[in-house]
């Protein structure tokens, strides 16, 4: 008579429940999964928009004339007062985009810039040059110049730093849970012989892994919801398509967790104890936290390193998450990012299947 395979549902639910309970009792998991991202959001969420703001220094006794009047009417220009010496010091330190002087008559202003802040210097030169060109046309009584720029304003959503930073914190929390928590959790179960006791029952290895993964799935979904909720309530973080955008974020978090779990299994397989696992986990996670678009844009890196960085698993996740939250895209519009996550998942699970040991 054929022997029936034991039902795996009960051990699966038990493993998932106690694994979830262990994670919530683990201070490191709670701190790096919930508290740490929220601390960063609380700090960096205070930053305003990424709109251009050019600071131009003009001595208080020279704040007159048509050039000054025109500059003071431009929203992107911040006029800074002070003595010439004070403004020169700020300019050389890169704290000012330029210093405008008109000590030889308001008709011949001079703009001083510094390479201490090349981007701001270029912006100041462009703005002041544009103002002077318009004034020259007015003085020359030229009403219709041969080349005229027509400017039309279209509606758009203000992009603030929280719109960039919050998706990165979701990626940070997810990678920490998927890799560090998984690796340390399984190593603990092996060291305490819990896995050995479980295998004394009819429970299968895949049931254990699915139970562990399910517990982390619950944690990841909770992390995403908490981070988004705090962003909405505290910093007016906006969901482009409302509940649909939130649903897309949750689905992407599930995909990201599945992709990253293989790395945690790999570390748990090759590490003998927590002391061995810690540096390996840091070697996998820390470079991605620093360069994969978590805290600052990948575009800010040198151009020669960007193609390599964009191939990191966390880069694919962060890019996809920002496409959902900032650009209002849906998952079917980000094939490249999903393929990238899938490729990394296949690589990680293949390697972990060859290295993972239950004892």
UniProtKB/TrEMBL annotation:
It holds the Pfam family ABC2_membrane_3. One of its GO terms (cellular component) is ATP-binding cassette (ABC) transporter complex. InterPro entries: ABC-2_transporter, ABC2_TM, ABC2_TM_bact-type, ABC_2_transport. Residues 121-359 form the ABC transmembrane type-2 domain. It is found in: Cell membrane; Membrane. The keyword Transmembrane applies. One of its GO terms (molecular function) is ABC-type transporter activity. Belongs to the ABC-2 integral membrane protein family. This is Transport permease protein. It comes from Candidatus Woykebacteria bacterium GWA1_44_8.
